[in-house]
Amino acid sequence: MTKTPLILLPGLLCDQALWAHQSETLSDIADISVADMTRDETIQGMAERVLDSAPETFALAGLSMGGYAAQEIIRQAPERVERLALLDTSARADSPENTKQRKGFIEQLELGDFRGVTSRLLPLLVHEDRLSDDGLIAVIQSSAENVGPEAYIGQQKAIMTRPDRRQDLKKITCPALVLCGRQDALTPLALHEEMAGAIAGASLVVIEDCGHLSPLERPRTVSAVMRYWLAR
User: Fold this and answer.
1) Based on CB atoms within 10 Å of each CB, which residue in 11, 45, 47, 163 is the most buried?
2) pLDDT of 94
3) 87: phi then psi, degrees, rounded to nearest 5
4) What is the pLDDT of residue 197?
5) Residue 59 and residue 61: Cα distance in Å, rounded?
6) Selecting from 3.40.109.10, 3.50.50.60, 3.20.20.80, 3.40.50.1820, what CATH number does the domain 4-94+158-231 have?
């Protein structure tokens, strides 16, 4: 059986560990690679870097910041993306409130204060029931340390300056999956309903008892949904 090339795009302060379960359990049907999202300060730059090293055609899945990059990739090269999955993300530009908060984080870092993912941020990332899951929290914090402060600043700059992509969603024609955790506090369900409504034929999947980092929080469920998406 010919395997589908599948490129996975991590979110802010995430690395390949975000997609560990999917990388392992979908390897029988997909040739999987996880993109490096730490080297560019614009979403456009991230997208161009992925396209430069990608196969001629491929399936594409991105979470949060990775979802912003996925939308830019399919805008730049729609003929190369065979199927698209947008997880816990948004098609909207950054809000003024979020941009102000991000600038505050950058100023804090420039004073030499990099704390990675702190206990204050964790309730925004995972369902409240998972805050006591030490193994999960350790993976999240380790990923943040691996990304590091310099790349984190670049990622925040990219997120702050991303364009609104809502009109571009209407041009997507490949099989599309829009997925989110029911309790995603950063990119709520309404944003995913908006995206799924704009993409013709898109499937909207809501993962129960799950926050923003769905591939880590509910790995088996997300992998099962992505298997179906890849086989559609």
Assistant:
1) 11
2) 97
3) -115, 130
4) 98
5) 7
6) 3.40.50.1820
Q: Are the C-beta atoms of residues 169 and 199 closer than 8 Å to each other?
A: yes
163-166-169 Cα angle (round to 5) = 115
Q: Residue 119 has what pLDDT?
A: 76
CA dihedral sign, ordered 133, 63, 7, 161: negative
Amino acid at site 95? S
pLDDT at 121: 84
**Cα 74 to Cα 38: distance, rounded to the nearest angstrom:** 20
In this structure, which long-range contacts are made by residues 43-47, counting pairs with CB atoms below 8 Å and at least 24 apart in sequence? 43/68, 43/69, 43/72, 43/158, 43/159, 43/161, 43/162, 43/163, 44/72, 45/158, 46/9, 46/72, 46/158, 47/72, 47/73, 47/75, 47/76
- In angstroms, the CA 180 to CA 206 distance is 5
Domain ranges of the chain: 4-94+158-231
Structure tokens given for 12: 């802010």
How close are the terminal C-alpha atoms of the chain, in Å? Answer: 15
Structure tokens at 24: 């392992």
DSSP result, 56-118: SSEEEEEETHHHHHHHHHHHH-GGGEEEEEEES--SSPPPHHHHHHHHHHHHHHHTT----S-
Reported residue count of the chain is: 232
| Residues in the chain with pLDDT values less than 50 | none
Tokens standing for residue 142:
């380790």
Three-class SS string for 152-177? HHHHHHHHHCCCCCHHHHCCCCCCEE
